[in-house]
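Researcher: I'd like a structural prediction for the single chain below. Treat it as a standalone chain; there are no partners to consider.
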Amino acid sequence: MLWNPQHTATRQVMMNLPMFSFLAGIASATPLLVGATFMLVPTAHGGLAWALQAITGLIFATIWFFVAPTHIFGTAASIGSIIGTIVVLCAIALWKIRALWPFSAAPIQPLKVVLPSLAVMAFAAMGALYLFRQPDEPPVALEMPLRNVQWYVAHGGPTLLTNPHHSVPAQRHANDIVVLGPGGKRANGLRPQALDDYYAYRVPVVSPCTGRVLAARNDLPDQAIGQADSVNLAGNFVAIACHGVTVLLAHLRAGSVEVKAGDEVRSGQALGQIGNSGNTSEPHLHIHAIRGESADLRALLSSGEGVPILFDGRYLRRGSRP
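Model: Treating it as a single chain, here is the predicted structure.
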């Protein structure tokens, strides 16, 4: 999370409130639950109607998976609640299947089954074109700055739907990358408050390219969970000029940055560690690139021209993993 406070101040404050995060999680799970209901609970309108409902449910679940901020469900409690809900829905489905088997030969009611299903399918087709479209400009090829860990893209992609950075010119193609631990969790515990509870914290960050350091900072403290530095948005950072762009790696751990302005760096060279400095909600790595070479923070954070990034040949978006 970096963003421009002039555009997203209210949103940033709200996202740092535990209750808002909880409600956002429920809201984003709604399509999944609706989809699961369609998919698992048959009606007495025949096998074809149930098939249509199953397809509709799968579409709902797919939309939820790619659009919803699924990183909200990184704790054991949230994962458990989703699994529990699906188990309950499966139990209801089995009970209804037993009651309806063999399927009723009653005619399908178009207004109740066919038309809603077709409407959802049409919506999903248009949404897929929007969600999975590729960047409309040439990307810059970089290497993943995190090695030997299970990473996950919490925010990313070419649209505002999956990337809240998109409204800020310099950050249009930014990625927020977290690290996953056992069970696919971002952190250890039900309500992690210590920075070391997060698997991303202290993870080494290496240079994604060979180039020259234009600017770096190393003296800002890591923020406690629930707090954010709205003045020094990037926190501790490294800005590297390479391939005709400037790559910004932000939110690094206090005292961990190993390079300074003017240093030549090679791809894979250690830069520092993931921290929680700057305008951030939890330990993660923020990375984006702007066209040209610039050490000016205003250009790096807001006014620069953001360019798409390929990591090891892949354009990442929300939900991307190794």
